[in-house]
Design goal:
Blueprint (H helix, E strand, L loop, with lengths): L4 H27 L4 H10 L9 H23 L16
Helix pairs in contact: 1-2, 1-3
Amino acid sequence: METSRRSFAALLGAMATAPLWDQAVAEAQTRGTVTADTLRALLDAQGGAGIFADPARFAELQSAVTRSAITVAALRAFDVPADVPPAVMFSRS
């Protein structure tokens, strides 16, 4: 399997954002919002602020990420009994 620099960089970026996303979820649960510093770190890990350098767009993004983080926390907290089969199963045929 050949790996290009671009795909390797994308993989590293995805790995770097996982702990940051967990931090964003924890902040949304405890503070009710994702802090600007965490959001900037998430943006930097994904390649920079871009259009979110504008304060109005940044505020919109902060609100959207907070809502998403609260939704993720609610989904993670949902208890599924062990006897419930998965909704989707993958198999090799």
